C-alpha cells in the first residue's frame, strides 16, 4: 500500500485510464466506488461474522480463507475509493476447482 495519495488532476480522465487498463487485464466490468470497510477481505478476522456458518458449511476455514496471504490489511484513512474488476471465468474450470461452491447452495444450506 502506498503511503500517501496520488495527485489526480482530472478524475474523469483518470477513471477512463483505469478502466482501459483493467480491460487489458481481462476485466469486462470495471467500476470505481467509495470504499466500504465491510467489503474488504481482511486477513483472519476480516470475514463478516454472518458468513461464518456458510463458510463452515462448505468446508472453508474462515481464519485463513483461500487467496488471502500475509498479515493484516491496513487501509489508510485517505483511501476513499476502490477499483472493482469483474473477470469472466469458464464455468467448467471453476466447478473443477477445490472448495468450489455456489453461493446460492451455501445460502440455502445455511437455513
Topology at a glance:
Blueprint: H1 11-24, E1 29-34, H2 52-57, E2 81-86, H3 91-96, H4 103-109
Antiparallel strand pairs: 1-2
Task: Tell me what you see in this structure.
- The chain has 111 residues and is an alpha+beta fold.
- It has one domain (11-109).
- It has four helices and two strands.
- The protein has helices spanning 11-24, 52-57, 91-96, 103-109, and strands spanning 29-34, 81-86.
- It has a two-stranded antiparallel sheet with strand order 1-2.
Tally of distinct domains: 1
| Count of individual helical segments | 4
Order of helices and strands: HEHEHH
Number of strands: 2
Could you name the key traits of this structure?
alpha+beta, 111 residues, flat, two-stranded antiparallel sheet
Q: Would you summarize the structure shown here?
A:
The chain is an alpha+beta fold. The chain has helices at 11-24, 52-57, 91-96, 103-109, and strands at 29-34, 81-86. It has one domain (11-109).
Amino acid at each position: 500500500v502506498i503511503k500517501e495519495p496520488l495527485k489526480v488532476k482530472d478524475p474523469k480522465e483518470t477513471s477512463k485510464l483505469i478502466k482501459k487498463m483493467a480491460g487489458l487485464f481481462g476485466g469486462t466490468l470495471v467500476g470505481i466506488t467509495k470504499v466500504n470497510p465491510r467489503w474488504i477481505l481482511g486477513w483472519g478476522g476480516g470475514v463478516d461474522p454472518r458468513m461464518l456458518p456458510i463458510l463452515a458449511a462448505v468446508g472453508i476455514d474462515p481464519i485463513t480463507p483461500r487467496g488471502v496471504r500475509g498479515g493484516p490489511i491496513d487501509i489508510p484513512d485517505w483511501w476513499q475509493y476502490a477499483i472493482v474488476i469483474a473477470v469472466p471465468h469458464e464455468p467448467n474450470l471453476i466447478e473443477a476447482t477445490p472448495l468450489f461452491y455456489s453461493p446460492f447452495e451455501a445460502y440455502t444450506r445455511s437455513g
